[in-house]
Structure formats: C-alpha cells, structure tokens
Amino acid sequence: TKIEPVEGTEPGTVDIAVGLEPAPPHTIAGELGYGTGEGARAEVSWTHRNLFPPEGALTLRGVLGTEEQLASVIFRRNNFEGRDRVLTFQAAASNLKRTAYQARTVSLSGSLERQTNIFFQKKWTWSLGGELAASDERDVIVTTGAPRR
Asked: Contact, 80 vs 89, CB < 8 A?
C-alpha cells in the first residue's frame, strides 16, 4: 500500500493518492487443539475469494477430531443485486459425539443479508435465511440405561 499527498484540483487543496495491490485470492487456515471435554481436534479451511467473479467466494472446511468430524462447503456472493448485500449458501455434514449424546447431521442453508460497513453505514441492516437439517441423534435414558434414538 502506498499513500502520498498530491496537489488537489482546487487551488490550495491536497488530495491523497492511494495505491493498492490485490491480496492473494486464496486463504488457507488451520487450527489444532485439545480440550478436556472434546479431545483432540484439527480444523482446516481453504477459501478462494474470486472463484466465481465478481466477488463470489468458495470455502471448503473440514474438522477432524476425537469427538467431532465435519465437512462443509460455503458459497458467498458479496454485493449481490446491490451494495453490501451478501448471498450465502452452505452444505454441511457432521458427526458430533458428546458424553450425553451422539448426533449425525446433514444440513443445507442459505441467507441473504444487508450489511453495514465503516464507509457506508446504514440505519437498518437485515438478514433473511433458512436451513433444512436432518439429524440422527442418540442418547441413553438415564433412569433405565436404555438406548434412545
């Protein structure tokens, strides 16, 4: 980034010239951890910010852990049909194992939102979305020890 003052178009004024370079279009992120209640966990994600021009990003995310596994695909379109509108679709599959229950879940979701930002602050922001989820959950009845689905 390069910022320098330049002579303005009006006498006695100064403009600021800003030179920007685009960031790399890909992001790779990772996380490793251990929790006493969750065990070992590794998460990785890959994002391509302009895979579907203009401003259409794709994120692939995976979690592998002793008590959690997840895979998801997220599509995000910024400035969809207007400034600061964001369209998002997500598909995910997960397996979550906790002391109290186990859940295998598949979900599809989508949302459209109007965001505010530091330059174009809005009085009203909104978000509208929906999710379709199917889950197979299992636990044990505490009093009898019988498995329940």
From this structure: no
- pLDDT grade for 43, boundaries at 50, 70 and 90: very high
Q: Is residue 5 part of a domain?
A: no
Degrees (nearest 5) of the Cα angle 111, 116, 117? 125
Asked if the structure places residue 136 within a domain, the reply is yes
C-alpha distances in angstroms, 147 versus 37, 65, 102, 140?
A: 22, 24, 11, 4
Please indicate, yes or no, if residue 6 is contained in any of the structural domains.
Answer: no
First to last CA, the chain: 57
Is the CB of residue 122 less than 8 Å from the CB of residue 83?
A: no
Question: Global pTM?
Answer: 0.78
Q: Report d(CA 81, CA 88) in Å as an integer.
A: 13
Please give the tally of structural domains in the chain: 1
Residues in CB range of 97: below 8 A, 6 or more apart: 67, 68
Evaluate if residue 1 carries a pLDDT over 70: no
